[in-house]
Amino acid sequence: LASSVLDPHTVLSVCVLTTILGCIFGLKPSCAKEVKSCKGRCFERTFGNCRCDAACVDLGNCCLDYQETCIEPGHIWTCNKFRCGEKRLSRNLCSCSDDCKAQGDCCINYGSVCQGEKSWVEETCESIDEPQCPEGFDSPPTLLFSLDGFRAEYLHTWGGLLPVISKLKNCGTYTKNLRPVYPTKTFPNHYSIVTGLYPESHGVIDNKMYDPKMNASFSLKSKEKFNPEWYKGEPIWITAKYQGLKSGTLFWPGSDVTIKGIYPDIYKVYNGSIPFEERILAVLQWLQLPRDERRTRFFRSFIWTSQQ
Known about the structure:
The protein is built from 13 helices and 6 strands. By secondary structure, the chain is α/β, with parallel strands linked by helices. The protein folds into 2 domains: about 60 residues, Factor Xa Inhibitor (Irregular); about 160 residues, Alkaline Phosphatase, subunit A. β2 and β3 form a beta hairpin. The radius of gyration is 30 Å and the shape is elongated. The C terminus is likely disordered.
């Protein structure tokens, strides 16, 4: 009779063993289905082994890919394999979601990284025998951009590190170098480009200058640079307006000044803190404005600079 009574310790051991085996064989499939990634879950209040909302940082239970999936896309302008097919988030600078082409907000390398397409810089040069207009334009837009301080030697010596500019050079027309006006400063040269005048004629002779007649000092960091009295000549955006054309400028020296009482049709006041990628995005968005907002030949004279 004594041998038929189960030892309490034996019963406890059997229960523990049964529980362990149940977890291993019975619960393992459901455990394996638990989501441990933030992909498609960013900033949602979903609970599980890990979280992907902002509170997870303080709680210390973020998924391991929280930074890469939810935070980094708000600071970078490119796709990677990890981002392809991501859920659309308004806070991201550009998108790698499956519908980004339809929405027109894909990151610049979406096609090559996420869809296996050949990059534009890898394609052969296109032969165009007749003038062509982009879709939605009645005449081809003219774009002028400047990389301030980009000396000719950079392209000759380091062309392999500059694939986009090298592509434009190889597939288009280029000159080995240009001769700047004197002095070789940003404002005098950029204002000469858009007026066709030497500094002694257009008045902008330096980045910093003093006029005894005006008793005023001009500098790039002072409000005096917005005084139209410093700017002589006729910049091209004013000429375009006189010819019934439209123009837009982004950070070109003098374009945020009311010269002859006129501004470009679209312009932005210079802000050096805006990243270059954001500047390019602004230009692309202007070019994609609806036809009725652009009207005829809207960007015939379009001037901008990624100025340093």
